[in-house]
Write a sequence for this structure.
C-alpha cells in the first residue's frame, strides 16, 4: 500500500517555519507497512493544493493532508479535496450544532467562516477533533479503492485524529518491526565495521552518540538481527527508545538511592542542567558548581593555586581536585567534573582545541579521562556532557570493563 | 518566477530523519522574490523522483533538487534528471580527472560507482563541490526557459553550491525585504493587538519569546512598517537577526567590562550554561552555583536556614539572599538567581506550578521579580532562564522603565 503525505502552509514553503507533521505521519505509516512515496509541502493556495491532491491520488492508495482546516480564508483544504475529486462540500449537521453551542457559550458570533469548520466533502466521514473546533474527515473513493484523510495542522489536534484515522482504515497495528538503539562510545568507522553485515539499518550521528535504527518485515528475522546487534554493542547501548542519557542516569540514581553533584568548567553548567531536566531530579541532584574562572576554581572549589600554575587549568590534576572537592562541598555520593578547551580559541602548543579532562569519583576512587573532541563549541560541550553522564551510567550499571574504556 | 524544491532521501519519507535543506532553500528563494510553490520529499527511487521532477518542470520555472548525487546505488538524481528531460548522462572530463587524481592520492580504487560522481546530463554546466567529491549541475532548458539545479544533500556541501547556483541564475540579490525582530516580555494577545494593522507579518512563539517576521516587496513601504513595528516594540526587541539572548547579553557585558555569576535552583544551571555557550564568555562569566537542594542553599550559598523554613525555598527572601550571596562568593559585578517550581510536581496550596522568583543585583540594589509560567518542565526552565538573561540585558542597556516592568 502506497501513501503520499501533503502538508499545507505558506509559512513552510516561504521558509519561515519547519514542518514536523510530515515526519510524524511518515514514520507512523512506515511502521504500519505503508510505503510512503512522498511528503509534499504545498502553499495555502487552492490551485497548488488541488493539483498536489490529484497527483497524489493518481500515484498512491492513501493521501494524508495536514493543515488548512481552520476558519480563515487561507484554510483551503476542504475546498481543494472537493475540487480534486469533483464533489460538493456539505455541512456535517452534528458537528455544526456542536460548533453553534460552543460559540454561543463563549458569547462569540458564529460567522460563515467559523461555520465552514463543519464542512466536509459529500460522502466523507468526519474525524472528531478532541481538542479544537475544526473537524477532519476521511473520504473513501470506492470506485478506485483509495482514501483521502484530512487532518488539522496543530500537532496536539492532528496526532490523536491521525491515530483515529489509522484505526478506521484498519491500519492500527504496526506491521514493520523496528528498533532504536542509542549508543555512546564508539566511532563511526568502528560501528560500520562492527555492523557491516546488517542490512536494514540506518545511523544518525550527533555529539550525543549514534542513534541506530533497525527495521524488518519479518518478525523472526527481526528478533535475530536485534539480538545480534544488541550483543555486539553491549553496554555502549544507553537506551532502547527515545530516552535521553540524563533520564537513564536519573532512573539509575533513583533506584540506587544515590546523590550527585557536578564541578564544571568547559561545559559551564550543561551537565547539571541536563540532570535537572528530568522531572523528580531533586531527589538525587544536590547541585553543581560552575567554576569558569581560575579564581572560582581556587576560591570556591579549593583547587590548589600552585597546581593550576604548574599544570594549567586544563589538566588531569585540576579535574581530579575539582571532582573530589565538589563531592565534599555538596556531600554527594558521587560527582563528575570537567575542564577543557571548547574553542574556538584557547589552544596552546601542547593543549589542542577540544582537549578535555573529565573526572568521576565515588569517594573511594577517582578516575580522570582524557578526551579530545573536534567540533563547534556547542558540539564539544554537548559531547563532553554526554561523556560525563555516561560515566555515571556505566558506574551505576557496574560495567567495569566499559567504564575503563571510557 | 516559480520554483519547486525536491529533496530526495528514503530516510525522510520513512520518518527516520527530519529534512532541513528544504527550509533553507525555500527561505533563500523567498527572499529573492521567487515564489516557492512546493517542497517535495521523494524516496530514493528512480520512478518516484523522475515523476516529481517532471511534475515540477510542468508547473514551475526553477527546480532545485538536493540529495542523491553520491556514489552508491541509491544515488539516482543524475539519472532521474536525465530521464525526466530525455537526455543522456555524460562524464564531465575535468571533474573526472580531478576525482581520479584524488582517489589515486588516497590509494583508493576509482570504481564505476565513484566515477559516476562526475556525470552530468548532456548540456548541463557543473557546479563545483568545494568540500565533497560529487559535483552538482545546472541544466537550462532553453526551449521552455526553465532550469534544473542539482545539489548534494550534505548541508556543508549544498549551501555554498546553492549560493553559487543562485549567482549563475542571476538571483544573487535579495528582492524581498524581510526583517526579523526577536522580542521578549509581551503576551500573545497584547502583541496581536499592538500590531493588528501590520499586514505581512508572522509570529513564532516559544518560551524564549516571540520571533516576529516582516516582509514586503516594496522598499519604501518596508522601511515604514519596520520603523513602526520597532517603535511600538521598543526595548522588548532583544535582537534584529538570529542572535540569541545570551549572545546579546555577552556582547553587552564585554562592552561594559562587567562580570556575572549565577545562583540557580529551578533552572539548574541553564542560565550559566547558556552564558557559557557564547565564544569568549570566559572574559565575563565567573561561574555559577546550582543549589538544587536546600542544604546546598544553606551550606554553600549561605541562605539563612530560618528563612527557608519560614518563607519556603521558593520565596522572594530566598531569591534575594541567593543572588546577593553568589555575587559575594564569586566577586562578580552583577548576579542573577532563581528559585521556583518547574513542575510537574512540587506545587503547594499557596504556591502554584510555574511560580518563580528571579533575583538581580549589581551590588547596590537588588530586585526580585515574581513570575508564573505554565508549560512543560523544560519550557518553564527555558522561559525563566530567558527572563533572567533579559534582566541583565535591560540593566546593561539602561532601559529602566522596561526593567521595572520586567
Amino acid at each position: 500500500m502506497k501513501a503520499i503525505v501533503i502538508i499545507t502552509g505558506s509559512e513552510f514553503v516561504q521558509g519561515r517555519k519547519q514542518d514536523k507533521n510530515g515526519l510524524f505521519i511518515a514514520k507512523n505509516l512506515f511502521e504500519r507497512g505503508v510505503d510512503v512515496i512522498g511528503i509534499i509541502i504545498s502553499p495555502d493556495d487552492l490551485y497548488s493544493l488541488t493539483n498536489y491532491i490529484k497527483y497524489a491520488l493518481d500515484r498512491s492508495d492513501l493521501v494524508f493532508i495536514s493543515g488548512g482546516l481552520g476558519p480563515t480564508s487561507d484554510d483551503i483544504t476542504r475546498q481543494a479535496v472537493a475540487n480534486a475529486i469533483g464533489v460538493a462540500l456539505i455541512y456535517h449537521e452534528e458537528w455544526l450544532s456542536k460548533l453553534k453551542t460552543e460559540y454561543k457559550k463563549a458569547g462569540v458570533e458564529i460567522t460563515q467562516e467559523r461555520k465552514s469548520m463543519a464542512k466536509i466533502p459529500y460522502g466523507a466521514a468526519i474525524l472528531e477533533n478532541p481538542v479544537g473546533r475544526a473537524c477532519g474527515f476521511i473520504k473513501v473513493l470506492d470506485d478506485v479503492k483509495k482514501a483521502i484523510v484530512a487532518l488539522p495542522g496543530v500537532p496536539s489536534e492532528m496526532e490523536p485524529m491521525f491515530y483515529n484515522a489509522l484505526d478506521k482504515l484498519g491500519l492500527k497495528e504496526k506491521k514493520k518491526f523496528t528498533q532504536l538503539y542509542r549508543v555512546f562510545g564508539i566511532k563511526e568507522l568502528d560501528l560500520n565495521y562492527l555492523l557491516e553485515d546488517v542490512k536494514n539499518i540506518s545511523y544518525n550521528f550527533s555529539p550525543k552518540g549514534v542513534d541506530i535504527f533497525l527495521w524488518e518485515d519479518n518478525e523472526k528475522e527481526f528478533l535475530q538481527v536485534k539480538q545480534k546487534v544488541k550483543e555486539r554493542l553491549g553496554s555502549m547501548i544507553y537506551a532502547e527508545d527515545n530516552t535521553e542519557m540524563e533520564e537513564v542516569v536519573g532512573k539509575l540514581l533513583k533506584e540506587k538511592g544515590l546523590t550527585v553533584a557536578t564541578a564544571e568548567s568547559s561545559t559551564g553548567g550543561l551537565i547539571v542542567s541536563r540532570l535537572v531536566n528530568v522531572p523528580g531530579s531533586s531527589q538525587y541532584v544536590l547541585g553543581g558548581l560552575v567554576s569558569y574562572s581560575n579564581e572560582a576554581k581556587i576560591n570556591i572549589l579549593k583547587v590548589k593555586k600552585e597546581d593550576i600554575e604548574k599544570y594549567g587549568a586544563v589538566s588531569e590534576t585540576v579535574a581530579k581536585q575539582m571532582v573530589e572537592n565538589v563531592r565534599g562541598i555538596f556531600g554527594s555520593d558521587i560527582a563528575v567534573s570537567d575542564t577543557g578547551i571548547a574553542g574556538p580559541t584557547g589552544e596552546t602548543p601542547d593543549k589542542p582545541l577540544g582537549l578535555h579532562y573529565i573526572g568521576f569519583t565515588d569517594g573511594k576512587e577517582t578516575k580522570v579521562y582524557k578526551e579530545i573532541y573536534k567540533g563547534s563549541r556547542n558540539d564539544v560541550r554537548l559531547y563532553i556532557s554526554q561523556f560525563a553522564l555516561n560515566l555515571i551510567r556505566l558506574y551505576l550499571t557496574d560495567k567495569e570493563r566499559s567504564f575503563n574504556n571510557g
User: Anything to note?
Assistant: The CA atoms of residues 95 and 405 of chain B lie 62 Å apart. Chain B has three domains: 2-168, 177-239, 245-405.
